[in-house]
Each structure stands twice: as C-alpha cells, then as structure tokens.
Amino acid sequence: MLQSIWDDVRREFSFGNMINRIIIVNVAVFLFVSIVWMIFTVAAGHTQSPAFDSLMHWFYASSDWKRVLLRPWTMITYMFLHQGFFHLLWNMLYLFWFGRIFGDLLGDRRVLPLYLLGGFAGFLFYFIAFNVGSFGAGGSYLLGASGAVYCILTATAIFAPDYNIRLFIIGNVRLKYIVFFAIMMQLIGLGSLDNIGGTFAHIGGIIMGILFAFYLRRGTDLTEPVQNLLAWIQKKWANLLAPSKEHKQPGPRAAYRSGRSVKETAGPKKRPSFMRKAGETAPRAKPASNTSARSQMTHQEELDAILDKIKERGYNSLTKEEKDFLFRASNQK
C-alpha cells in the first residue's frame, strides 16, 4: 500500500501541474514537522518541548530584524509551514480551487513565482507593521501559506471576475464576490488583535496580487525575474548532480569487422535441417514488438491506440507505460 501511495505521489509531482506540486510539498512538510513534534513531545514527557520550539524558530519568519538578518531563509520557509491540521486544510483547499483557475488562465509557469512573491509580500507587510506599530514587545513569529494564497486568489479574481464557483448550499457564486468578501474580512480583522500578524500577511498578499495584475495588463510580468532565478537554480542543481567528465566510465566495447560489429556479421543462428523434428518448418522471423512499433507511431496515433484499448478492454488492461503516457498527455496544454 505504501509503495502504491508513493508511486502516485511521485507521478503527480513529476507530471502534475504546479499547484499540485506546491500542495504536495506543504503536506509533506506538515507531516514531517508533526512527526518531529511527536518525538520531541514524547521525549519531554508529553509536555510542550522547548527544544522543538527552538528548532522551529529557525524556520518561522520573525518580526525581529536581527533574527531576519541571521536567518534570511525564513522569509521563504515560513510559507510552507502550518500550525494545526485545519490551518493547512483551508490554505490548501483555497490554493487548489483558485490556483488551478489561475494556472489555466495565465500559465502554469507563473504559479510558483507568484506564490513566492505573495508570500514575500505578506512577510514584508507583517514585518513593517510590527516594527512601526505597537503590537507587542519581544517580537513575534509568522508561519503559513495564507499570504501567498491570498495573492493568487486576488490575481485570479481580477482576471476572471465572472468565473462561477459552486459553493455548498449557496450554489454558483461569481469569483469577484468571493474575493471581495474575503478582502473585506481581512480589513475588518485589523480591528482585532487576534491573529493580527496573519491579517497583515494576508493584506500584503492581496496587495501583491493587485500589483501583479495591474502590471501584467500593461505588459510587465512581475514574476519573470523569479522565473529566471528558478530556472538558474534548477540548471545549477542539475549540473551539480550530473557526473563529471573525469568520472565517466567507458562502456563495453564491441569488435568490428568491415564496419559492422561481430554480433551483426554473425547473424541469427539456425538449426541444421537434420536436427529438426519431422514436420517442423524453418523458424519464421518474429514480428516487431509493441515497444518498437509504438516508437514509430506519432503522439496522436499512440494516444488513439490507448483510447481504443480502454474502450475495448477497460482501463485496467493498460500497462504501466501506457498509463504513464496517458497521464502525461492529459496534463499537456
């Protein structure tokens, strides 16, 4: 069972859209942190573990400028951490519902860059508000993907305001009304100190979503520098994992005769006629395998063949390679 789950997650992360990948990362981080919390809590005698809190402060965003300077990575890591199951659940549901609309409208390549920009804007707004205003001494900590999610939500509503969302009991509601209600709730939330840091982060994400839509309509894509940075990091990572030229080992060599290998010139072995059984005929050439035949088919022909096979014998009759091909084809734009 675990192997099957791991295969599904790996396939979705490899071939799924960026929204699904972000959700997988957030859920994986939440599960890992929960297991670490359980270990520290049991070791502390089922009480709150100061060691666990000290460890997580290395990944939470802080309003203390000294901690930000010493731990600059927290401006990124905080947006992949959640406190409690429902904190994670609602953020991921909002991201799934509205992020897929954003990806279909504006392209999958902009999803992760805008997620990071929205999260950074949320941190920046929270940091400035806590250092300018008086919201408590000693600093505070911020975690959660809410700022990034509100950024994507706002940008989606600006580009597709009349998109219908079906809500439970209420029915179809246009996206612009959902986002307007969400923004008003955040503005009203400024009057309460309950989760005031999260409210500032949400407003920062909303502002970034508005700025992104404003500039994109005028021909400037704010996510382009982030896209270039992510492409550069991916290239460097691929080069780091690639084996160096000095460590490449030569493969097995073949002897050649008249421009062809010995194996090619030898040809297939045949049984002498006197060794055949009575009535036995000479062996016939084997038909080309499905793999070689499939390699000569076009992408559309192979897709049609797989769909015909499903129609005749059902989905379960497909091989693993055919299922992977169908999954990749369904995610192509």
TrEMBL record:
It comes from the Bacteria. SUPFAM superfamilies: Rhomboid-like (SSF144091). It is found in: Membrane. It is a multi-pass membrane protein. Residues 72-218 form the Peptidase S54 rhomboid domain. Belongs to the peptidase S54 family. Residues 288-298 have a biased composition (Polar residues). The keyword Transferase does not apply. Residues 297-330 form the DUF6576 domain. The lineage of its organism: Bacteria, Pseudomonadati, Bacteroidota, Saprospiria, Saprospirales. Keywords: Hydrolase, Membrane, Protease, Transmembrane, Transmembrane helix. Its main location: membrane. This is Rhomboid family intramembrane serine protease. Coiled coil: none annotated. One of its GO terms (biological process) is proteolysis. Residues 244-302 are annotated as: Disordered. Signal peptide: none annotated. GO terms for cellular component: membrane. Gene3D superfamilies: Rhomboid-like. GO terms for molecular function: serine-type endopeptidase activity. The chain crosses the membrane at residues 21-40, 75-99, 111-129, 141-163, 175-193, 199-216.
